[in-house]
Amino acid sequence: MALARTWSVGLAGVQGAMVEVEVDLAAGVPTVALVGLPDAVVRQSVDRVRAAVVNTGHEFPLRRVTIGLSPAAMPKQGSGFDLALAVAVLAAAKVLPAGRVRDLVLLGELGLDGSLRAVRGVLPAVLAAARAGHRQVVVPRDNADEAGLVEGIEVLAAGSLGQVVAHLAGRGPLTPHERAAASPPPPGPDLADVVGQAAGRRAVEVAAAGGHHVFLTGPPGAGKTMLAERLPGLLPPLDEQAALEVTAIASIAGTLPPGAPLVTRPTFEAPHHSATMAALVGGGSGQIRPGALCRAHRGVLFLDEAPEFPRSVLDTLRQPLERGSVTIHRANGSATFPCQAQLVLAANPCPCASAAGDTACTCSPLERRRYQSRLSGPLLDRIDLRVTLPPVTRAAWLDGTGRPESTAVVARRVRLARATAAARMAGTGLSLNSQVPGRLLRDRWPVGRSSLALAERALERGALSVRGFDRVLRVAWTLADLAGATTPGPDQVAEALGMRLQRVAA
User: What are the two backbone dihedrals, phi and then psi, of residue 476, each rounded to the nearest 5 degrees?
Assistant: First the structure.
């Protein structure tokens, strides 16, 4: 009997879990038994490994081969186990020294010719290996920069199974990979391109400063999409922890930009209104993948033509928006993804979507109400800022007196406002006004009753829910931070209430 062990990593959501790969060779009819809850892709790896081993110049053992993936109760998914299986088989067959592979972590998919191909989820896998105490990992060459983001672990990049075998046999050592300096990402769209729309520009600035959700309504051509696309540029760059979280999600989703292993800017996701529930939140029939909401973590999720989305799909956003994470359950397991994204909804005021606004609308009042009611009340109750954009006038478009403020100018104000809020909330574990629980907001940072008079009257007459009242307070604090005030005054509360109640502004 010959036995060899090595290591790989399985993924559950954005978390990696160490998987020990054991191969036992015994006398008997030549066959391969793969145990440990493998999915279809992992089961097919036996054929890929056999072909890769043979085409690399070695013999696949003609014995009874038992391959065990431990822990046995954890589902194993994906093609990232191929390299570990091949190396363990060769070690069990005495082609490689078993001692050299015992503590090695191997990730990668094998081609039939023995080439090593990139796989998804390398960053969370290498992070899991580092937490487990491993100090060396072998990855495909195309994943090397991504794996090199993890401190304290040596990354060996290989292009084929033959190179890995030569390294482990001592014939051609692989050199540790040095991550190249990433090129700066290209600049995003500039807020200076948006003509007029003072209310819309103010809304995205407030949203960026406080992390608030936004609902923009207005006729076609009013600038709803332009404003949403420029919101990520107003957000500060991601810190190290946030960048690793966002990069891990992009790695699992397969959306990591080539040549940019670390995502340092807030992301922008804009799914089409035909997106399914799984596409928006996450899921899938096999391996659970993050949806658009999760891919927008620490960034912006933009839903254009929001009433055209199925109502049941939109309502799945309610709980994740509150919790900042989503857990997707399937019969064979579950996965949790972070989703602290800013939601931006955009909608036309009616089905006919006349560019001239209400003056040329052909919809009846009933049609307008039906169209607007496609967005449920509980979902809209979670939106802090609701702004109606008027049509862009000829004077604003052709006879503007000056260039509007650029993204850089507004982003500086946003950074100062965020720094003010973070200093005020130091020691609470919070950094944005939108994150503060209502009870803590009222008890620790009370606002004078004279300043809250308008909001209290709106609460009394039913125009605001209790949740809405707290959200008005949060927005008022953001407005105070932008204005450099120590506490919200009547003006900030009135402006926050106006944004909440969707008053039309010029």
Answer: -60, -40
CB 15 within 8 A of CB 47: no
What's the rounded Cα separation, in Å, for the pair 486 and 286?
Answer: 52
CATH fold, domain 3-169, is Ribosomal Protein S5; domain 2 (3.30.230)
Instruction: Tell me how crowded residue 466 is: count the other CB atoms within 10 A of its CB.
Output: 9
Angle between helices 224-234 and 198-210 (to 10 degrees): 30
Tokens of 493: 């509360």
Q: What is the average per-residue pLDDT within 366-378?
A: 86
Q: For the chain, what is the largest distance between any 2 Cα atoms, rounded to a whole number of angstroms? A: 88
pLDDT tens-place string over residues 246-296? 999 999 998 887 777 889 999 999 999 999 999 999 987 777 889 999 999
According to DSSP H, which parts of 102-223 are helical? Answer: 122-131, 144-147, 161-168, 198-210
Report the distance separating Cα 158 and Cα 445, nearest Å: 56
Sign of the CA dihedral running 307, 311, 314, 317: positive
Beta-carbon neighbour count of residue 117 at 10 Å? 17
Cis bond leading into 71, ω under 30°? yes
3-state secondary structure of 495: helix
Question: CATH 3.30.230.10 spans which residues of the chain?
Answer: 3-169
Cα gap 222→398, rounded to integer Å = 15
The pTM (predicted TM-score) of the whole model is 0.90
Within 8 A by CB and 6+ apart from 231, the residues are 204, 207, 208, 214, 268, 300, 342, 344
Instruction: Name the segment(s) of the chain with CATH classification 3.40.50.300.
Output: 191-407
pLDDT value at 226 more than 80: yes
Q: How is domain 191-407 classified at the CATH fold level? A: Rossmann fold (3.40.50)
Contact 301, 341 (CB under 8 A): yes
Band of residue 504 on the pLDDT scale cut at 50, 70, 90:
very low
d(CA 256, CA 121): 10
